Please model this.
Amino acid sequence: MSRSTKFMIAILLGAVAGLFYGWVVNPVEYVDIAPESLRVDYKTDYVLMIGEAYQVDHDLGLAVRRLAVLGSSAPTDIVANALSYALQHEYASQDLSLLQLLGESLLTWNPNMEVPTP
Amino acid sequence: MKQDRRGSWYLLTGAVLGVAIGLFYSWVISPVEYVDAPPYALRNDFKDKYRALVAAAYLYSNDLLRAEDRLAQLKDDNTAQSLAMQAQRALAEGRPEGEVRALGILAMALAGGVTPITPGVSTTQAIMDTPSNEAGTITPLPVEPIISPNVSPQPSLTQTEMVNTQLPSNTVLPTRTATSTPTPGAPFLMDDTTLICNPDQPQPLIQVVVQDAARQPMPSIELVVTWTGGEDHFFTGLKPELGLGYADFLMTPGVVYSLSLAEAGQSVDQITAAECIADDESRYWGSWMLTFIQP
Model:
C-alpha cells in the first residue's frame, strides 16, 4: 500500500473519529433555543395555547406576536400547519375548534390596525 | 535503493487533518440545525413566554392537569415557585396585568392542587417561621396584646389561629403601639397583628400575610412601607416557601414605619421594632406579623 493511500486512510479514520466524538461521545445539547425549533407536537401545542389564550383576551395582535416566535411564516400558515398536525393526530374536537377559530380570526387580522407596543 | 526515513508521522498528521476536516464540515459548512427540540431547551426568556402562555391558556380551560403537563416539559425544579417568581418579575417589570394575574392564579392552583374558578381564589396556606423554643427552657408567660387596631375585624372572619397558637411563651417588650388607620372603601382590611418572638429569627421584620376572602394567600400584592425620609415597596409571594401571600421587610430599630397596600387598603402606622425576652433574660428583636384580608 502506498504512503499516499495510507495517508488518505488516516484522514478518513480521523474524520470518522471526529464525527463519532461529536455525535456519540459528546453530542450536541439543545440549550437556549427559540420556540421555532420546537418539535412539531410541542409547536402545535404552543399554537393551541395561543388559541386558548385568544379566547380569553380576544387580542388578535397579541396572538400574532405570540405566533411570531414560532417562525417567520405567516401567522395563518403557522396555525394551518398546527391544525393539519392536530387533524392527523386526532386531537380533541375542542382543540381543533380552537385552532380553527384562531385561524379564521387571523384571516381578518390587519397588521396596519396594530398599535405599536412600547 | 533509497531508504524511507520519514517514519509513520504522516499517519498521525493525516488523522489530525481528518479530525479538522470533520469538525470544519460539522461546524462551518453544515452546522447543526436545532430542530425537534423539547421545551426545556428553550432560552430563559422563551421559557418565561412559555409559562405565561400556559397560564393564559389555563385561564380559558381551567384544566390544571393539562397546565401541569405543559409546565412539566420545562423541567423546573419547583413549578409553582417558578411561576410565582415569574409573576413577581413580571409585576416588577411592568408586564401587562393580565399576564401577572394569570401567572399568579396558576401558581396558586398548582400549589394548592385545585383549580380555581375565579381569579384571586387560591388554595394554599401561608407558612410562617414558627418559634422553636425547647420545652422547659422558657417560662410560660402570657403574651399581652400589643396592638389595638381602631377598626374591628369583620364579624365573619376568624382570628388567625395559626399565628396565635404558635406564639412563643416569651415576655414581649413593645416599644410603641401600632395603630391602624381605616381607609373608607378599602378592599383589604387588617385582620390580625401579632408580635412574633422567635429566637431563631432575631431580626426585626415586618411580616405581612395577605389573604383573599376565602382566607387563601394572595401573591403579587404590592406593599408600601414608609418612614421619615424613606419609602420602599415589596411584594407578597417573593418567598414562596413561606407562603404565596407572605412578604417581609427588615426594620431598622428605632425607626417608625407605616405600612399600607399599594392598592387602596388599610394602613398600619407607628410600627417599630420591639424586643422580646427569652427565659435566660437575653433580649432579641421580635417581628410584627400583620395579616390583611379581603372582606
Remarks:
- Chain A has two domains: 1-30, 35-112.
- Helices of chain A lie at 3-25, 40-57, 60-68, 75-88, 93-107.
- The two ends of chain A are 71 Å apart (CA to CA).
